[in-house]
Design a protein that fits this description.
Elements lengths: L15 H14 L5 H12 L10 H5 L4 H15 L4 H4 L2 E4 L2 E4 L9 H13 L10 H4 L1 E5 L5 H9 L4 E6 L2 H13 L6 E5 L6 H7 L3 E6 L14 H6 L13 H13 E10 L4 H12 L3 E8 L5 E8 L2
Parallel strand pairs: 3-4, 3-6, 4-5, 6-7
Antiparallel strand pairs: 1-2, 7-9, 8-9
Helix pairs in contact: 1-2, 1-4, 2-4, 6-8, 12-13
Bound molecules: S-adenosylmethionine.
């Protein structure tokens, strides 16, 4: 990295407030996105808080120890290289969970919290016992990343079991670590598997489950070049690029869904706003056993979630 004009590490006397002002200005000058948030998350993290507002005012106005100042400078240098702040502080909150974050595993986005809410709204009633009870209590997640969706569902529904798979070994390892540290590993099976290449193994592992959820790679390949450096340089492109029409993994999920789901089982997908009509048409033409149930919008009112059902 070009080191000119980088704020020198002050030896004595600087406060956290002053460090925030120095780095906010520097991030702005260098075009780092969300300069304010970035430095605030870094300082809060180094003082063991979630946000700056959660810190006592004195912590911000007393002189920093040399060690603390060094830590701030180290993390800010990482942010200056455009590393997302979630990777810099190595954790991020998703719903009521704090998840470990590590490049290149996809950082969960706020819309995905809404996808989880949609699934939870349908799964709120615990299935009874008897024939098929195991399947009715089981959900498959395709592309678990850090484990955000699977672990949220498990945390909210103590009766649920989840099978999570991902083509990335880094993602599988991170989901496993997060499950362990959140005490949710006993009801979670995690597999390093590619739904396109390993479809036979996927089918042998999970058939007759009630729910299939996925936030798959869905960007149109041509849109990949316009991504922010944070995303392009640090996140796994296989987590983002859904092929020329963004539907490469989605088509495979829909093709396998009737073999994976119980009757009346549902598929919940997070997609690009251009996708819902394409998915509706494609499913009608290619997967007879699936009914398109509805499209739901996200908090910015864009059509982002598709729900389909096996049978009627
Ligand atoms: C957009 S990320 C979502 C991660 C996580 N579920 C979340 O919402 O934060 C998509 C994930 O799907 C995985 N993936 C991509 N192609 C896949 C495939 N063919 N089979 C299985 N997983 C795949 C990626 O490795 C990535 O972790």
């Amino acid at each position: 990295m070009h080191m000119c004009n980088v704020p020198a590490l002050p030896i004595v006397g600087i406060t956290a407030c002053q460090a925030m002002a120095v780095w906010k200005r520097h991030f702005e000058e260098k075009g780092v996105t969300e300069p304010d948030h970035s430095i605030q998350y870094i300082i809060a993290h180094l003082f063991g808080a979630k946000t700056i507002d959660g810190l006592e005012q004195e912590r911000l106005t007393e002189p920093l120890s040399h060690q603390k100042a060094e830590q701030i400078w180290k993390l800010c240098f990482q942010r200056l290289s455009r590393m997302p702040v979630q990777y810099v502080i190595e954790e991020w909150d998703f719903r009521d969970l704090t998840l470990k974050m590590r490049p290149p595993v996809f950082i969960p986005r706020p819309e995905t919290e809404e996808l989880v809410e949609l699934v939870l709204a349908d799964l709120k009633v615990k299935p009874g016992n008897g024939v098929g009870a195991e399947g009715r209590r089981t959900c498959l997640e395709v592309g678990c990343g850090s484990g955000a969706i699977s672990l949220s569902l498990l945390k909210s529904l103590p009766w649920l079991r989840v099978i999570a798979l991902d083509q990335s070994k880094d993602a599988v390892n991170l989901t496993r670590e997060n499950a362990l540290s959140l005490g949710l590993k006993d009801r979670l099976q995690i597999h390093h598997m590619d739904i396109v290449k390993d479809s036979d193994t996927v089918l042998s592992l999970c058939n007759q489950v009630s729910t299939l959820v996925s936030n798959p790679p869905y960007l149109f390949s041509e849109d990949m070049t316009s991504l922010e450096p944070e995303v392009l340089r640090f996140e796994d492109h296989a987590a983002l690029d859904g092929g020329s029409d963004g539907l490469r993994v989605i088509r495979q999920i829909l093709t396998l869904a009737p073999k994976i789901l119980l009757n009346s089982g549902r598929v919940y997908l997070e997609v690009d706003p251009r996708h819902p009509p394409l998915i509706r048409r494609w499913a009608q033409e290619h997967v007879e056993e699936l009914q398109y149930v509805e499209t739901r919008v996200d908090f910015t009112n864009r059509p982002r979630f598709c729900i389909l059902q096996k049978g009627r």
